[in-house]
Automatic annotation (TrEMBL), chain A:
It holds the Pfam family Cyclin_N. This is Cyclin-D6-1. The keyword Cell cycle applies. Residues 159-277 form the Cyclin C-terminal domain. GO terms for biological process: cell division. Keywords: Cell cycle, Cell division, Cyclin.
UniProtKB/TrEMBL annotation, chain B:
InterPro entries: CDK, Kinase-like_dom_sf, Prot_kinase_dom, Protein_kinase_ATP_BS, Ser/Thr_kinase_AS. It catalyses: L-threonyl-[protein] + ATP = O-phospho-L-threonyl-[protein] + ADP + H(+); [DNA-directed RNA polymerase] + ATP = phospho-[DNA-directed RNA polymerase] + ADP + H(+); L-seryl-[protein] + ATP = O-phospho-L-seryl-[protein] + ADP + H(+). ATP binds at residue 33. Residues 4-295 form the Protein kinase domain. This is Cyclin-dependent kinase B1-1. Keywords: ATP-binding, Kinase, Nucleotide-binding, Phosphoprotein, Serine/threonine-protein kinase, Transferase.
Length: 312, 303
């Protein structure tokens, strides 16, 4: 048995020895209790970052390092997504002192290592830090892995927005059903892109999933938005106001992205996930952080840029 | 591990010794299980990571013994992981035995059997809904809180790290009594039905206060089953004669379940017969079992 982790099926142990069972689970509604369970436990998997800007810059440094490793190893975006989820949940529980930037690197590497093990993707410590001058030995990474595991209470089968896509797609009005694959693919792209947005950790994973699907529906065809929106509001787990706020947050993020993409002269899909844009968003986040009363002095944004290592 | 005082050895689990221990600070009683896996150069082995995180998720159900934490220890240069579980005072085997022996020998109250079976089906349905088979359900693996009347599934045999071995840690032969016929006949593509078969055997054992099929070898185990339920035929179980270990067995006629279990009401007999259905795909599922009329008299709101 392997039990590889699948972002879209966090609750299902994908057991290769019992294909019959797994296939039944993966195809549709074999388990009507699953959404209930997901909604009941999603809050355990959320990460609220403490207000401290130290943590904020730690987050952005860890994110950019993960994206960098993702690019240089051509990794599946879902692996990086899972690693970032671990980083966020770790930082929500433990503070990393501002001066200890090496811990942030160690954290990012360990979370990538754990994510690769969860997804059964072979990634050696060397793959994880090939471009760095200073290499952590496996003993150190191992200790950090254990610290991450105990901090996250071994809840490594993260419940993320991806876990809810299938559920909310079942609310799709019949006339749009034809586009279900395109819609899901587009929403997934939106989720991958918006993970670095600080606002994205303020919402429940289920709300982010619904909002990403709505934004995706609107982008595919504006006429899809309203029927899907009213169908989703029938879902007892969604609140109209929060959903609107979350859609607006995603919209805001996407439009910033587009402007940057235009100024960088490349398409938004490609530019969205480079380490450079990750950092730009951190900077934007830091600046907007000021408006909600955090004590930013601009130094962190500068530090972010300084610490940023561009991929070669 | 300094967090806990080891109190006593409470058993030999599938993966090694199990200790009753106490949290030094909170006084909470726990069960400590050492995993056989050692950490290697690459940190925590991927399989162990995936299995423990799955166990962590499954143990969110109140019908599954709760995993409270994972502790790592370095001893003589070896790195070991201990799983820390909630502690329950007894298991179903010891509990049933307490009704069998001594001056107080008497049948288990039928309400209690109903309640235990319901909780067992809940736990198994929970595991199955997460794509996990238990594969080694037996009374020793079902922990019981006597005072509260609670039963929980323990010892989930998840996979490589916790593989059910042919011989247990103490070289005691692993019991075949609860093993489904398709497994005994060498089927490799078995599924949820294997657990339901075990549940059926456990159900009958609570009623009888002794095992239903107590074979001491795989062949003897099959013959016990065939003698009681009749030798399976292609008509009853399509494909049975193509299973790897199928032979021409003596032809037995099925016995009457209700005569063999006079203490069990007709609904109970009906549920048991559906759990002991030969053809795995016709066997009742744990979830369906929860809705069986046998449980109609049970106050389900307490669960």
């Amino acid at each position: 048995m392997e039990f590889d982790f699948d972002l879209e099926n966090p609750l299902a142990g994908v057991d290769h020895d019992t294909q019959q069972l797994s296939t039944a689970l993966l195809l549709g509604s074999a388990n009507p209790d699953e959404p209930l369970t997901l909604f009941a436990v999603e809050s355990d998997h959320m990460s609220f970052l403490p207000g401290a800007l130290d943590q904020f810059s730690a987050r952005c440094n860890a994110h950019s390092l993960i994206v960098q490793v993702q690019f240089s190893n051509n990794l599946d975006p879902s692996l990086a997504y899972l690693a970032v989820n671990y980083v966020d949940r770790f930082l929500a529980k433990r503070e990393i002192p501002r001066e200890k930037t090496w811990i942030v690197r160690l954290l990012a590497i360990s979370c990538l290592s754990l994510a690769s093990k969860m997804k059964n993707i072979d990634l050696s410590p060397a793959d994880l830090q090939s471009e760095e001058g200073f290499i952590f030995d496996s003993q150190t990474i191992w200790r950090m892995e254990l610290l991450v595991l105990s901090t996250l209470e071994w809840r490594m089968r993260s419940i993320t927005p991806f876990s809810f896509l299938r559920f909310f797609l079942s609310y799709l009005p019949l006339e749009i059903r034809l586009h279900i694959q395109a819609l899901k693919a587009h929403a997934s792209q939106i989720l991958f892109k918006s993970q670095n947005e600080i606002k994205s950790i303020e919402f429940k994973p289920s709300v982010i999933a619904a909002a990403a699907l709505l934004v995706a529906a609107r982008e595919l065809s504006p006429s899809h938005f309203l029927p899907f929106h009213s169908a989703l509001l029938n879902c007892e787990y969604l609140n109209s106001e929060t959903l609107t706020e979350c859609c607006a947050a995603i919209d805001g993020y996407i439009s910033t992205n587009c402007i940057e993409a235009a100024s960088n002269g490349c398409d938004s899909g490609r530019s969205a996930l480079t380490p450079v844009t990750v950092l730009d968003h951190c900077r934007a986040g830091l600046e907007s952080g000021k408006t909600v009363g955090s004590a930013s002095d601009g130094c962190d944004a500068k530090m972010c840029r300084t610490l940023m290592r561009r991929p070669t | 591990m300094e967090k806990y005082d080891k109190l006593e050895k409470v058993g030999e689990g599938t993966y090694g010794k199990v200790y009753k221990a106490q949290d030094k600070v909170t006084g909470q009683l726990v069960a400590l299980k050492k995993t056989r896996l050692e950490m290697d150069e690459e940190g925590i082995p991927p399989t162990t990571l995936r299995e423990i995180s799955l166990l962590q998720m499954l143990s969110q159900s109140i019908y599954v013994v709760r995993l409270l934490g994972v502790e790592h220890v370095e001893k003589n240069g070896k790195r070991l992981l201990y799983l820390v579980f909630e502690y329950l005072d007894t298991d179903l085997k010891k509990y049933v035995d307490s009704y069998k022996k001594g001056p107080n020998s008497r049948p288990l109250p039928s309400r209690l059997i109903q309640s235990f079976l319901y909780q067992l089906c809940k736990g198994v349905a929970h595991c199955h809904s997460h794509g996990v088979l238990h594969r080694d359900l037996k009374p020793q693996n079902l922990l019981v809180d006597k005072d509260k009347g609670i039963l929980k599934v323990a010892d989930l045999g998840l996979g490589r790290a916790f593989t059910v071995p042919l011989k247990s840690y103490t070289h005691e032969i692993v019991t075949l009594w609860y093993r489904a016929p398709e497994v005994l006949l060498g089927s490799t593509h078995y599924s949820v039905g294997v657990d339901i078969w075990s549940v059926g055997c456990i159900f009958a054992e609570m009623v009888r206060r002794q095992p239903l099929f107590a074979g001491d070898s795989e062949l003897q185990q099959l013959l016990h089953i065939f003698r009681f339920l009749g030798t399976p035929t292609e008509a009853k179980w399509p494909g049975v004669s193509s299973l790897r270990d199928w032979h021409d067995y003596p032809q037995w006629k099925p016995q009457s379940l209700s005569q063999a279990l006079p203490n069990l009401d007709s609904e109970g007999v009906d549920l048991l017969s559906k759990m002991l259905e030969y053809c795995p795909s016709n066997r009742i599922s744990a979830k369906e079992a929860l809705d069986h009329p046998y449980f109609n008299g049970l106050d389900k709101s307490q669960f």
